[in-house]
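Translate structure to sequence.
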C-alpha cells in the first residue's frame, strides 16, 4: 500500500489510502477529516460519521508517521479501532 511519490517527510506512503482501507474494514461510513492530504506531516487524525441528519460522531487519534512509513497496519488499525470505540457525538 505504498505511494510512488515521497511526501513532505521524505517518506513514500499514502496516509489517506491506508486509513480509508482500515476504516472501511472496521466500520464503513467514516469520513477522514484529517489528514487533509497525503503530504500532511501532522500525526493527528480526525474522523467523522453521520449518525442521522444533523447528528455526528467524531474522534481523534494520534498515529506516528513512522507507523505509516513502515506500513505497520496492525498498529494503525489498533489505534483506529480505539478511536472509533471512543468517538463522541458532536
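Result:
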Amino acid at each position: 500500500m505504498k505511494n510512488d511519490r515521497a511526501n513532505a517527510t521524505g517518506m513514500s506512503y499514502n496516509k489517506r489510502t491506508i486509513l480509508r482501507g482500515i476504516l472501511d474494514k472496521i466500520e464503513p461510513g467514516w469520513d477522514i477529516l484529517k489528514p487533509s492530504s497525503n503530504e500532511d506531516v501532522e500525526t493527528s487524525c480526525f474522523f467523522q460519521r453521520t449518525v442521522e441528519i444533523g447528528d455526528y460522531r467524531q474522534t481523534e487519534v494520534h498515529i506516528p508517521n513512522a507507523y505509516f512509513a513502515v506500513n505497520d497496519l496492525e498498529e494503525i488499525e489498533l489505534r483506529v479501532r480505539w478511536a472509533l470505540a471512543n468517538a463522541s457525538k458532536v
